[in-house]
Specification:
This protein is mainly alpha-helical. Helices cover about 80% and strands about 0% of the residues. The longest helix is centred in the last third of the chain and has 27 residues. It starts with a helix and ends with a helix.
Amino acid sequence: MRRWQALGRFIGEHLMVIVPAGVAIGIAFPALLLPVKPLVPTLFAVMTLQNSLSNDLRSMAVALRRPAALVVTILMVHVAMPLATFCVASLVFGADSPTVAGVILEYSVPIGASTVMWIGMFAGELALGLSTLLLSTLISPVTIPATLQLLVGTTVEIDAPGMMANMAYMVAIPALVSTVFNELSH
């Protein structure tokens, strides 16, 4: 167990190097990581499960009773970021460039499941993070097409049921299981 905890501390202390290196390896050598691609959703589910073990129903209720932080975060992710991205991408690539639509799409996606990992590592408000993640995912089948239509006049189809199923598997179910386990075991 000590070795496992030591490994976790080492990874946590070196994330500023590990994450960019992992992204660079993935971009430079995609075939190298292709065999582990099917494991990614399960790895996110395990991360969510582990990082949600300290969550309880009281924390969730507190997070939902004070929705200002949740609303501000949703507005930042689904309004401010895509709008700022549109402005910068239009300046860099030209307003009519198809790259602008791609960059806006990238910055319009819902809050990622890795958010739970970062919140857990840096002792953030897990209940608020989980609530924001779930709400962001629920509204994204509407916000992504609307954002692209409003900013660049482009439409995109979203597999909403598939997205919801993936987020349920990677976030909602592991978080619920962890919360229930925490409530029952104290």
